[in-house]
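fold-stage: in
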Amino acid sequence: MTWNILIAGAGIGGLAAALALHDKGFGVEVLESAREIRPLGVGLNIQPAAVAALGSLGIGESLAASGIPTAEHVYFDHLGERLFTEPRGLAAGHEWPQYSVHRGELQSLLLEQVRERIGPRAVRTGAQLLDVCQNGESVHARVLDRAGGEYVGHTGRALIGADGAHSVVRELLHPGKAPLRWNGAHFWRGITELDSFGTGRSFHHVSDARGTRVVAYPISAKAAESGRALVNWVVEAAVAEPGTPIERNWKRAGRLPDLLGHLDGWELDRLGLRELFTGGGPILEYPMVDRDPLPNWGAGRVSLLGDAAHLMYPVGANGASQAILDARALADALDGTEPMTGLREYERLRLARTRAVVLANRKMDAAEKASAGSADYGEQLAAITADYRRATTTGAAG
């Protein structure tokens, strides 16, 4: 294949798609609105199926050198009592590990590979997508060059909207449909370097009877090699009733007193959380949102990928993995066929599977909160997580 594909967005999904499409022989041009791609963000998890997809692109060793191969999820109550332990990755019998990794490091790794393999100008930064039009032969993207203030046109045989939760491409394809859905909870997130954390390969999940949750896990192989633990942490707490209109402020600086106010009565020192919250850098705060699954993603020569297609709650640690699996499926579906045929095949393969994950994340979130504080909470957690795995591991769902 030699025809050109445009990708809007240089996040995890967009860059993985660029590599997968290049691997099939396509020309690729990535349009990124940000003027500079910096290694920002906090931790994320890459599930075994997505690790296998990245391994097929030849970056498995680089991923291993960056992230932590998570071996277990350990569940505690807010007083520090262990409730349930679930093996993960290789320890759970998978052929590939599950990795916990810094999002910015993974994005930088993918960006480096895109520029090395495809070319230094494969990713156009400061390219703000404004509009898309198509005809029988091509798709045309109208872009604002944010550096020069000029309007520029980019043409390809297909265009993929991998431009995130607030996707321009999604809104052009589905104007006003499936608005952000807020469940009334906020997240506070940060990263802290500690002397140690759990076994060094543990993902800790702590909750109380109100449904307030804390998750924390190490994300850096480099820190581990130096005898330290770089730990990503998240506090989730209800701040409004479900169905409340979402706040206009999508992200803001978090305040330590606000998150600590939701942890009244917790054994923070026994759980090792106080040092985690007070010893780190900036805190981010934002609402917990997803979108109702769309009945279809694309039209003609245009389709969606990652959060632009299927924004989900992060409770299943599956969002980045699904974007990577989208990327692999997209390249496979387009290989050897015409754009519109390949895009509809890609959507056929991925739409139902990602819909299942979005809904499974909602179900698990609600089930964990409904059972929190019960006498047999550990047993219920085991059943809830087993149900989630069954719902999300069919075929290539991850």
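fold-stage: in (second)
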Amino acid sequence: MSAVLEVRNLTKDYGSFRAVDGISFDVPKGKVIGFLGPNGAGKTTTIQILTGLTSRTAGTVTFLGKDFDTHKEHCLKRMNFVSAFNTLLGRISVYENLLVFAHLYEIKNAHRKIMELLEYFEIRDLKDGQYQHLSTGQKTRVNIVKSLLNAPKLILMDEPTASLDPDIADKTLSLIERLRAERNLSILYTSHDMEEVTRVCDEVIFLQHGKIVARDTPLGLTKRIPNVTLRLMFNDHKEIITDYLSQKQYPFTLHDEHTVSMDIEEKLVPRVIFDLSKLGIWITDIEVKKPTLEDVFLHIARH
């Protein structure tokens, strides 16, 4: 599959501090790539380089087969950026804001393009309202409309659902999924919400101290943590259970007289349940909690 964006050995130094340390990655056509890491990992600096706001110290960036430095205007006309933390001009209307950006991108038939996108995102009725009077969710939709005016091949999305209530965040994610499916759009996606990353991203890149420390599908990353949390509820014989778990050296927590949880390898779950049944324990409920992308994020951030 051809890559829309290719980054090779990207490096950015601020004096003696290296913010981005020789990273390389691709964004394939029609894919959503999560770009994650704790604060200070190098995500923002990388995005600033990709949008031309910051120069790089070393490395190459190729967009649609063209070198970003020598074809910067060509590249920037075919990508866009959206963030929950960016705002448009507050005292003019939504339509006027979008018209300004349409002219900046030299969009032909700007009026028709704006109206089509407002209709697509079901916010045509906001056209004449001042941007400053919109709700957070409405501003997010307008910002996404802005990012699509130039029919980009790549959108850089920085925390697009930040500060949104769950219902509006879910609708925003549905719009992102719809965009990817209908327009074969490539997206580089940053977020601190691991559930939404798991939902929308095909692959995930983890940064730490300016380096890429992991890249895989969300499922592939969670499989790197072999343990699951097994939670059991039982009728009686607490002592038999604790003796058994202590003998097997399984770390466990006794929550009350009838509930215990333990962290064990997933393959051992059937064995534990079988052994306890043979010891006469009547298990009334079983819950297996597998690792999530948030567990992976915390593991990388702490180790």
